Amino acid sequence: MFASETRAGQAAGTVIPQPADGPVNRKRVVAVGTVAAVLIAGAGAVAWAYIGDVPRGTTILGVDLGGRARSEAERALTEAVGPRTGDPVAVDLAGERFSIGAADIALRLDVARSVSKAIKGSPRLVGERTVQPVIELDEAELERTLRGHLDPGKVTLDVAAAATAVRQAWLVGGVATIDLVTEPPATTREQVDPEAATPEPRTRAGR
């Protein structure tokens, strides 16, 4: 075998080694994998949060409605709270305690409107979002009932504030505390006795 052939054979059989994976390459792979896992997990969490009509973490009167369809949420709220809708509401009217029957002032939980309020909002991945229920009542009947416990000549009512207190206390076992407003007299002494406003005539001393 000639020397030239030997060199040619050696050249043809030479294998160029590939660079070995170094620490930098391994770190890059780990970083890319971590980012991908985080993105996938985040996408899954967002998808989970938006399942159903009612955003996750939403409660009404302690009932968790998150992730439910509208009809399912209405049914769950009705089943959980329905048995309490016939209960009276406790009232503290300037220190006087008594109860008012729900039917006496047409107290009613509007389930459909309450769930509609719950649907409007953003989901909570952590914690909960409390939505106040929609409660209807007859304010005229409420005022009439409360005034039956009052002296109409001395005090008056803030009916809107009283209705708010009743709504907040009913269905949660609370007490509606209603404050009174002092009412000024409807008439003055002069209006009752016109002569009181007329000065007495002076008598002229004799000469």
Give the topology.
Blueprint: H1 3-12, H2 23-49, E1 58-60, E2 63-64, H3 70-81, E3 89-93, E4 96-100, E5 108-109, H4 111-119, E6 129-130, E7 135-136, H5 139-147, E8 155-156, H6 159-169, E9 175-178, E10 181-182, H7 189-192
Parallel strand pairs: 1-6, 3-9
Antiparallel strand pairs: 1-2, 3-4, 5-7, 8-10
Polypeptide structure, described:
This protein is an alpha/beta fold and 207 residues long. The protein has a domain at 58-182. 40% of the residues lie in helices and 14% in strands. It contains seven helices and ten strands. The chain has helices at residues 3-12, 23-49, 70-81, 111-119, 139-147, 159-169, 189-192, and strands spanning 58-60, 63-64, 89-93, 96-100, 108-109, 129-130, 135-136, 155-156, 175-178, 181-182. The strands form four sheets. The chain has a three-stranded mixed β-sheet with strand order 2-1-6, with helices on one face. Strands 4-3-9 form a three-stranded mixed β-sheet. Strands 5-7 form a two-stranded antiparallel sheet. β3 and β4 form a beta hairpin. α3 crosses α4. Residues 1-6 and 36-45 have low confidence and may be disordered.
Structural class: alpha/beta
What's the helix count?
7
- What share of the residues does DSSP label as strand, in percent? 5-15%
Radius of gyration using CA atoms only: 40 Å
Binned, the helix content reads 25-40%
Described by strand count, sense and barrel closure, the largest sheet is: 3 strands, mixed
Number of strands: 10
- Mean pLDDT across all residues, rounded? 78
- Global outline: elongated
> Order of strands side by side in the largest beta sheet?
2-1-6
How do the helices and strands follow one another from N- to C-terminus?
HHEEHEEEHEEHEHEEH
N-C termini distance: 174 Å
Question: Low-confidence segments, ≥5 residues, pLDDT <50?
Answer: 1-6, 36-45
